[in-house]
Give the backbone structure.
Amino acid sequence: MKITEGLRESISVMGGNKIRAVLTILGINFGVGCLIAISVIGLAFRDSVGSEVGRYGSTLLWVQVDGNSYLKGESRILMDGRDIKFFKQALPGLQSSGTLFSETYTAAYMGESKEAQVLGVGPGHFEMFDSKIEKGRTFIEQDISLRKRVCVIRPDIAARLFKDEDPLGKVIRLSERNYTVIGVTERANNMLLSDGSDNNTIFIPDSLVGAKIWGGNFVKYWIYLFKFDSIENVEIAEERINSYLEKKYGLLRDLPRFRVQRLDSFVGMIDRILNIITTLVTVIAAISIVVGGLGIMNIMLVAVTERTREIGIRMAVGATKTDIVVQFIIEAIVLCLIGGATGVFFGAVLAAVVCSILEWKFMLSFVIVAGALGISTFIGLVFGIYPAWKASRLMPVEALRSDA
Amino acid sequence: MAIIELRDIDKIYKMGNIEVRALNRVSLDISEHDFLCIMGASGSGKSTLMNIIGCLDRPSAGSYHLGGKDVSGLADEQLAAVRNKQIGFVFQTFNLLPRISARKNVELPLIYSGYSAKERRRMADIALDRVELSDRAGHKPNELSGGQRQRVAIARALVNSPSIIFADEPTGNLDSRTGLNIMALFQKLHEEGATIVMVTHEMDIALHGKRIIHLRDGQIHGDEAVKKPANAAAAIRNLADLNKQDLEEAMSLHSNVHKSQESVE
Ligand SMILES: Nc1ncnc2c1ncn2[C@@H]1O[C@H](COP(=O)(O)OP(=O)(O)O)[C@@H](O)[C@H]1O
Ligand SMILES: [Mg+2]
């Protein structure tokens, strides 16, 4: 029997029993949907990590006080300006560096006020985190060194405090001090790796926050970020910073007081987590596809029993065993393919929704779709063979005697 | 020359450790262009014999030559080809596929001989025309009367121009007038050159053939030529010659029988 006849036949059979067909393909549908969704989302996630790592060049490295080494209440040793000075001259390929201080204050301007996150940053900060300025300028070295009372604000706080006024040059009040607005950034995009700012953040020079938080003129740092030109220099820096800090401050109960972290190893960790999730979902999908396949087999066995007389009639007019086997295998494959195709559709829709929420790039490759349909065909074949063989096994007269 | 030669055919059904000997050393020659009726009581082995010569089943022992070729040794796939091309089978219960139209039912054997869709349709229409059912080609079996269904089944048996048509009690599920129509159709096909082998347990049906054999307990117990076969077409004309009142009575009886039959189905 020709394939086209088999296809036409199976579609007419399914048309006659739509509910059963739908229930039968659910397992395959779910499994294939999971597979498609996880592969598309995984791909999009890797792409987004990749593009951010591309932006930061994965050559970002930061040093911070390792809170795990300290006992509760124990006072912590912080880095100071001399350490930073040493780093700046001892680390080759350093492109920019800076620190982060974060506090929440009430910001006020002419009777308008708003709780805002205040972030103390260095001059290289905006470049390091790829925040673009829309109006005005960012900090320059002098703002920091002279501890000028200036600030750069995010668009939401600008709109809240200044309405339609131009914020540049205006003075806002933050924790009983006045700061002049020198710049407004573009909207913060929803990135995986960020400085922790949002669209309500106010940036001020870190020297000011440092002085405010740690008191006095001598600024101390609990976290410091560096960006390098190459991964080799990141490796050199990691080693030098570690040995420098250990030599200078010593170990604390055999534990280092500071932790040096690299963006590239962070990315590797994210990748490992993603791999675990992918494996889990794939296992679930595989199980549900196999269970779906068993469901197909079950329904095909029922179909063979129900249609024994039809099989007898077909054999009586000249169908060979092969014809019958082919017909039932095609039917099983068509069922699986419909399940697979609808699964591809639902999985892709789910992935598209997730990607659009997380602002990731949605990519559905031909290979993934073809793979999913290939798996469906294979499952139909594997689980269709036994029922099909069972259908073809009888002599025509035995099949005709069936009163189903 | 005999188109069918059966020699010492046995058929034994095994049910657990009970053996039923349905055919016991049956030997039979059927010549080309014959119209043979196989008669016998219920359980005498008629269907068993018919299924074996129709290649729907295999004998337990004995040899069977069809058109000079030994078919008892054929593999399943070759036997299917014999059923497809050389044999047309008509059943008591019609055995049409309920999901598809009359035309598609008639096309069924052609699917397995590899004809194109266009060719199949053309051949099916010719076969339906031969059984005078062209106007019902698009109807599904459950939209047809019993007689019409049997005509579809006969068209399906004819469509691949087989050398022999087998019919196992083709009128068994029909009222007598419809049965007569079916017999007229078989006689017409026979006149047009068909070889027909038919099973029946009714003598007046059997008398439409040219030759009658009697089966009893799986053995042939008589083989006779019919001197002057009954003419079904003439009998129908005679029925139509009844005066009008009788005819209407007959018709209403007919439709009653028909209805009750349908409700049974
Ligand atoms: N599949 C079967 N299994 C067991 N016994 C059978 C089977 N088919 C027929 N028989 C037995 O074989 C004998 C002949 O049956 P069958 O050929 O159907 O007779 P007929 O068609 O003349 O009524 C009967 O005794 C019947 O019970
Ligand atoms: Mg019988």
Q: What stands out?
A: Chain A has two domains: 3-52+268-401, 99-217. The longest strand of chain A covers residues 94-109.
